[in-house]
Amino acid sequence: MPNPQAILCAATLLAAPAGGDPRLPLIELQIAGETRKALQLTEELVGARGDAEGDLWLLYLQGDLLERLGRLQEANNVFGRLLSAEDDLAAYGRYRMASLQEALGHPEVAAGLVATLLGHEAPPALVPRATELLVRSLAKGADCRLLGRLDDWSVPDEQRRALRLAEAECALRERRDPARAAEVLADLLGQETADSVGRQAAELLAREDDGSALGPEVQIAIGLAFHHNREFERAAEYLERGLAALDPENLAISPRALSEYRYATARAYFWLGDYDAAVHGFTELAATERGEPAARALYQAARCHELSGNWRDAAATFRRAFLADRDGSWAAAALFSALRLEFRGGREADALELFAVLDSRPAWTDMARRAALFLSASDVERGRTDRPASWLRRDPGKEAIPEFLHWTARLAELEASPHLAIRNYVEILKRSPYHPLAGAAVARLRGPALAPLLEPIAQQLAASGRRGDLHAAWILLGDGSPGGAAARGRLEELLRLDRRARAFLDLREVPPAEWPLLRAPLTRPEERFLALGLWADGEAQLGRHFPFQQPALAFSAGLRLADAGLTRRGLYVAEVLAEAIPPWLPEALLPTEYRRLLYPLPHRATIERSAAQRGIDS
């Protein structure tokens, strides 16, 4: 019998307006990590409501909380009570029962439940998870006959591929019609070799391969699948075998496809470090091709020569790659690569001649920038100051800004312009604090030549009161000095006057009581899950109730996702929000919780648990 006082409390909550919504304390308890208290309140509410329709959603939450507390059989029983529901909630209850049965060591029961689910038009958001669960259960020994009506199931192509793979794997494992299973696997490979299904199909076919049963096209497809998954030794073996077995008199493969297979074979040897075999493959391919395919093959052959230490042949082959397709997509890269090797080999006149060609076309601007950066860095490293300035004056492009700033600063040091050097090093730290060259900038600033100048320069910058100068002064002085702390404080004051910056400086989690979700009409099951704090089940409707146009709401959802173990999804939220952060707002001023979301700690729960056991502050 439920506690009468609990019934009165629950009934009061249920009858209350939005401010007394029973979902609110349930969500707040879960956020606080009070799972047992959340379960207690849920059970009180369920007991108070009896068998009312709305009680079914609370039953689902009850099952979820029981599972979180490790009470799996009890959770299974609760989810079982949802199977009589008339809407999608029954499908979710069935899936959770299946998941629990797998955890309890009953894959055959799990497979039966989830196969029934997939055979009756499961809610779209559930299909990927249900498919994965069925495939796992079948691999653990569940009855493969459950897939007997797979052709009648309404599932997307991606999941159908996974289920057909499982069907073929079952047939091979049980030695039922292995020839038909091989046909299915070959068909799956023929559709796609780059996804996980293609990879597993290739593995199964390779496992059954006796050296003669597989046709050349299938062997090539197996090789491509291994190649996509960076298993290059196996890729080369199957690609070579398949290409050798092709009948040139009855070739059903297009010349374009055949060229790609030969290219993939040579690339496999390249990644294996067998540069002689790779050069042979690329050179033979280039001899039979024209235009871009020839240029691509020659470019890769040149890379092999370079990695083998044969720079002269590499430079010559890069030139041939350029000449094979002067207007193609490999031309600029080939010119730059040849330039690099000629310059490093002491043939500067030849290198500068190539640079003039590279710099002659607007379409090659990006590669010309890289070449200018290479030439200027090479001169600066050797202490030469007469040429780099002209190369460094050009627009560096967004991606290369830290490199151009670094070498401009290094050149300024050589030319005894320490103030210019400091300014450029600081600019790297302002723009790209996590770039590899940011560490080099700090080291140069702390070096004996520049360190004595930092404080007076920083004081001068801080005195200007401008936003960018205050940021620079803070970088130079650091939080540990009064001047640095003062510059940071004044910078924050200025940034708070900017509406865009202020939105992120003040980014905080929105309390559940202020979520529009709890005041909105909810028609989809995923929306109702969100309104109970069930983030994994409600993820599909996040964008509807926690839109990116409202950063604080989206940030709140990101935090909840991360806490629910959905780290990738939480990171995605943080990265999308980051696109709206104004560039003049230093990342170091963003709220700590947001930065943790943007740079999640791998295996956070395990680390925190271990730290707590050892009394270490994590």
Description:
The chain has helices at residues 4-15, 23-31, 35-49, 55-68, 72-80, 88-103, 107-118, 127-139, 157-173, 178-191, 196-208, 216-228, 232-245, 255-272, 275-287, 291-307, 311-324, 331-344, 348-358, 365-381, 388-392, 401-414, 418-431, 436-445, 451-464, 467-477, 482-495, 499-505, 525-530, 535-538, 542-545, 551-563, 567-578, 592-598, 604-613. By secondary structure, the protein is mainly α. It is built from 35 helices and no strands. The model is unreliable at 1-19 (pLDDT under 50). It is flat and about 85 Å long. Helix 5 (72-80) runs antiparallel to helix 6 and helix 9 (157-173) packs parallel to helix 11 (196-208).
- Gap between N and C termini: 44 Å
The largest pleated sheet is described as: none
The helix/strand class is mainly alpha
Low-confidence stretches: 1-19
Number of extended strands = 0
Please state the overall shape, judged from the principal axes of the Cα atoms: flat
Q: Please, what is the average pLDDT?
A: 91
- Proportion of residues in helical segments: 55-70%
Strand content: under 5%
Q: Number of helix segments?
A: 35
Q: What's the Cα radius of gyration?
A: 32 Å
Labels describing this entry:
618 residues, mainly alpha, disordered N terminus
Write the layout of secondary structure elements.
Layout (H helix, E strand, L loop, with lengths): L3 H12 L7 H9 L3 H15 L5 H14 L3 H9 L7 H16 L3 H12 L8 H13 L17 H17 L4 H14 L4 H13 L7 H13 L3 H14 L9 H18 L2 H13 L3 H17 L3 H14 L6 H14 L3 H11 L6 H17 L6 H5 L8 H14 L3 H14 L4 H10 L5 H14 L2 H11 L4 H14 L3 H7 L19 H6 L4 H4 L3 H4 L5 H13 L3 H12 L13 H7 L5 H10 L5
Helix pairs in contact: 1-3, 2-3, 3-4, 4-5, 5-6, 6-7, 7-8, 8-9, 9-10, 9-11, 10-11, 11-12, 12-13, 12-14, 13-14, 14-15, 14-16, 15-16, 16-17, 17-18, 18-19, 18-20, 20-22, 22-23, 23-24, 23-26, 25-26, 26-27, 32-33, 33-34
